[in-house]
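Lab meeting, item 3. Inverse folding demo.
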């Protein structure tokens, strides 16, 4: 693949990441604006439902925020010219992995090691 093709692919990835970043910003703003109760007196079932819905909202926001941070990091790596380079071993991340997971910052081997270390001991 020549340099023009590589530049085009990186620019295409940048556009896709920027688009997803905007989507996440809108989704997270909407999550904050959602209201699960009408501020009236609630019975215990209504309180349980409101509590469950709030927990779900927090969980969804956390997941979206993690994805958002990975996208911001990938965009920074594109700007710095290090996109597609594993942050742990400094080897290239496979094109197949980047196609399916454009905000990947680790090669598959290093990602597996990272996840293994992050797992709590049972």
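The presenter then showed the designed sequence:
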């Amino acid at each position: 693949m020549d340099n023009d093709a590589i530049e085009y692919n990186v620019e295409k990835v940048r556009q896709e990441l920027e688009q997803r970043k905007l989507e996440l910003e809108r989704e997270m703003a909407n999550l904050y604006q959602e209201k699960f109760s009408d501020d009236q007196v609630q019975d215990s079932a209504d309180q349980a439902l409101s509590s469950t819905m709030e927990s779900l909202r927090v969980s969804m926001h956390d997941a979206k925020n993690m994805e958002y941070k990975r996208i911001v990091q990938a965009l920074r790596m594109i700007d710095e010219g290090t996109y597609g380079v594993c942050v742990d071993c400094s080897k290239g991340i496979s094109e197949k992995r980047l196609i399916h997971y454009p905000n990947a910052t680790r090669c598959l081997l290093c990602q597996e090691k990272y996840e293994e270390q992050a797992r709590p001991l049972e």
